Amino acid sequence: MAEGLTGLLRWYADIGVDIAVDDAPHDRFAESCADVCLRVEMRGHSAPPETIGAGRRVIREPAIALPANTIAAARDQAAAAQNVDDLRAKLSRFEGCGLKATATRLVFGDGNPNAEIMFIGEAPGADEDRKGVPFIGRAGQLLDKMLASIGLDRGKVYIANVVPWRPPGNRTPTPLETAACLPFTRRQIELVDPKILVCLGAASAQSLLGGKEGIMRMRGRWFAFPAGNTEIPALAMLHPAYLLRQPAQKKLAWQDLRMLGKEISRLQLLAKGNGERDGT
C-alpha cells in the first residue's frame, strides 16, 4: 500500500503536479463563467481586424468580467508606476491575483529594460519560480539559442511574461488570473517602450493582441500593439516550450526569426537615415 502511494506521488511529480490545493479557495464557477464570457465576447467581434502599414493588424481586446475593485486597483497601481523598478514594487504588493499565494516568488523580467526588442511569454515555470527570472529552464535555453541565431542576447532584449507568478503544476492561467495581471503587463511594455514586441505562444499573443486564432494562424504575422499614443509592431511566434515538444516546427520558428531579423535591420536603417537627415 505504501509503495503504491509513493509511486503515485512520484508519478504526479514527474508530470508536474506539485501542489494538491491552493491556500485560498477558488470560485471555479466564476472562472468558468469568465471563460465563457471571454469566448462570447471574442465571437461578437465579427468585423475584420484593421490593417496597419505593411501587413500589420490591430485586433480589438476582448472584455473579461472581473470584480470592479480588482481590475480598477490593478489599472490604478500600474498607471502610477513611473519606471520599471517602481512597477515591480507595486506588482509585488498587489493582492488581486490568487497565484501570488501559491508561487514561490515574483518573476518580473530579465534583460535590458531599455532594450528596443521585448519578448513576452505566458507564465513562469518551476525553474523560473525558484529563481525569480523568466525563461531560464530548458525553454529559456532554447530561447537564448534562438536569439543568438539573429545576433541577439539577453543584454540586447527584455523578457517578461503576461502572468508573473507560476500557476500550480504549470497549468494554464485562468482568464481571471490573466486579466488581473494584464494592466501591469501593458504598463511594463509602455515603460520599456520597445520598437518591436514579440509574443511567444498562443496565450501571450491572444492576451496582448486580443485575437482568438491559434498560434499557428497568428505566427509569422505582424500586428500593431497600442501603447499610449503610439503603436508597437508586434510579431507572434511559437513558444520555445512548444518547440521542445514539437522539434519539427523549428523550421517555422526559423522563418519567424528571419522576419524579426529583417525588421530589426529595417528599423536600424531607418534610424540611420533619420540621423543623416538631421545632420547627426
Describe this structure in words.
This protein is of the alpha/beta class. The protein has one domain: 3-Layer(aba) Sandwich (Uracil-DNA Glycosylase, subunit E). It contains twelve helices and eight strands. The strands form two sheets. A six-stranded mixed β-sheet has the order 3-5-4-6-8-7. The longest helix has 28 residues, at 250-277. The radius of gyration is 19 Å and the shape is globular. Mean pLDDT is 82; it is low at 32-64.
What is the CATH top level name? Alpha Beta
The helix fraction, in percent, is 40-55%
**Stretches with pLDDT under 50, minimum 5 residues:** 32-64
Mean pLDDT: 82
Q: Notable features of this structure?
A:
Uracil-DNA Glycosylase, subunit E, 8 strands, 280 residues, single chain, six-stranded mixed sheet, alpha/beta, globular, 13% strand, two-stranded antiparallel sheet
Describe how the helices and strands are arranged.
Blueprint: H1 2-14, H2 28-44, E1 50-52, E2 56-58, H3 68-80, H4 84-93, H5 99-102, E3 110-111, E4 117-121, H6 126-131, H7 138-148, E5 158-161, H8 175-192, E6 196-200, H9 202-209, H10 215-218, E7 222-227, E8 230-237, H11 240-245, H12 250-277
Parallel strand pairs: 4-5, 4-6, 6-8
Antiparallel strand pairs: 1-2, 3-5, 7-8
Helix pairs in contact: 3-8
